[in-house]
Amino acid sequence: MGEKIACLNLGQQPLANKFLTQKEVDKTLPGEDIGMYNLEYQYDIDTHLFSMINQPPKEDMFNNTYPYDSSGSQIMVEHFKTIANKINKDYVLKIPNDPFLSTIPNHSTDKINKNILEIGSNNGPFISNIDDRANRIAVEPCDNFAQITNDMGIPTYNKFWNKELSYEIMSDHGLMDVVYAANCMCHISDIKEAFYAVRSILNNNGVFIFEDPYLLDMLNLCSYDSLYDEHFSMFSIHSLTKLLNSVGLYINKIEHLDVHGGSIRIYTSCSNKNIDISIDKFMHTESLMGINKPITYKLFGEKVNNHRILLLNILEEQKSLGKKIISYGATSKSTTIFNYCGIGPDIIDYITDTTVAKQDKYSPGVHIPIISPEEGLTESVGSIFLGAWNFADYIMDKEKDYAINKKWIINVPFPRIV
User: Fold this and answer.
1) pLDDT tens digit string along 143-160?
2) 117 pairs with which residues across the strands?
3) What is the DSSP letter of 262?
4) If you average pLDDT over every residue of the chain, what do you get?
5) 20: which DSSP letter?
6) Segments in 31-73 forming alpha helices (H)
7) Would you tell me which CATH number, out of the four given (3.30.470.30, 3.40.50.150, 3.40.50.1820, 3.30.70.20), belongs to the domain 60-291?
């Protein structure tokens, strides 16, 4: 790693998914939650990696009370089903190019001699859709979700991903033909070791496919709410190329995704042949946008501060009209915004969320109450802050009848009323 430049400080932040009970709120003043830390990011001039300076302990973030359920969003359920079906077709069920073997139906009842590993499986929306005739294996550090996939009959290692775990799984199951990870690699502070662990367990002809939020989208949209305790790094293709090559992995193809406000899906292998044209396109665009220039990150920090001022002005103006302002979705994104901007229950009356585990609790840091949509979507509401702006089209269409004569407040790509 080379010279690092501190470029963005979002101040004292809580663990984004540590929702508080009434008893905990009664004992804690806003901004004094257990586990508060300074959320600050830096840019590495040598590797081009944009990463957190000091991340909270991983055991504090991912444990048996972790509430984020990947199956809680129908959009994400369909997303994982689609990529699982694609992997089934392209890698799991693919018949070798042999005249005799090509006559064998793909959907025979025989066991498929393929090892498929998912890192960060949550409650299984991806791995459960991989053909069950293959050898499916999962890694999930959160006890509550690891139990779910174990109960599905998918061997699940309730541990954090590292090289020791890769050796253990290799000893138990052999090398992997496919390794998949979604919104997981960006959580790991020692990312080089994490990639090395993947290379160690990957068959020489295997493929490692992972997807994570994309740094360039965050910079273009000023979606600083993508940054919170779990997101140690935001990847660019420049940074990933250096990191992956250093452990013997090579990017073969890149796809841009709309999920989570802009993500990339990276196809990698142990071969630097068959390189798709998409790589040059991404690298060229990043260079044009200044992804490898320190001034880009300095300007981003200034833009974030301007967003904060504009959002507060909008909220104060709406509050002066005398109706309730609520937030739709108790998201990690809104946790970052509320704590950075100092937005508490004096401005946002409450948050509605469909996740039962979050209801009747309070948002981290600022202690805004969270209730069900059935209880909270009332006619006394005047404005709705959209905490899950990355699902804006879906949510606004779903609530179009309720939201008549109400105003939506969205913070990306700039604070505004729609």
Assistant:
1) 999 999 999 999 999 999
2) 137, 179
3) S
4) 93
5) B
6) 58-61
7) 3.40.50.150
Closest by CA to 4, choosing from 41, 37, 39, is 41
Question: Quick one: DSSP state of residue 89?
Answer: I
Token duo for residue 57:
């302990």
The full set of domain ranges for the chain reads 4-48+295-417, 60-291
* Structural contact between residues 12 and 31, judged by C-beta atoms closer than 8 angstroms: yes
Task: Name the 3-class secondary structure at 204.
Answer: strand
**What confidence category does residue 246 fall into, taking pLDDT thresholds of 50, 70 and 90?**
very high
What is the CATH code for 4-48+295-417? 3.40.50.720
The string of pLDDT tens digits covering residues 267-318 is 999 998 889 999 999 999 999 999 999 999 999 999 999 999 999 999 999 9
78: amino acid identity, one letter: E
pTM of the full predicted structure? 0.92
Are 145 and 118 spatial neighbours (Cβ–Cβ below 8 Å)? Answer: no
What pLDDT does residue 98 have? 46
Check for a shared fold between 4-48+295-417 and 60-291. yes
Structure tokens at 8: 């963005």
Q: Indicate the SS3 state at residue 31.
A: coil
Q: Phi-psi category of 336—alpha, beta or left, where left has phi over 0 and alpha has psi -120 to 50?
A: alpha
Q: What is the pLDDT of residue 104?
A: 47
List the 156-157 sheet strands across, edge first.
156-157, 135-139, 115-119, 176-182, 202-213, 263-269, 250-257
Distance between CA atoms of residues 365 and 341, nearest Å? 12
CB atoms within 10 A of CB 133: 16
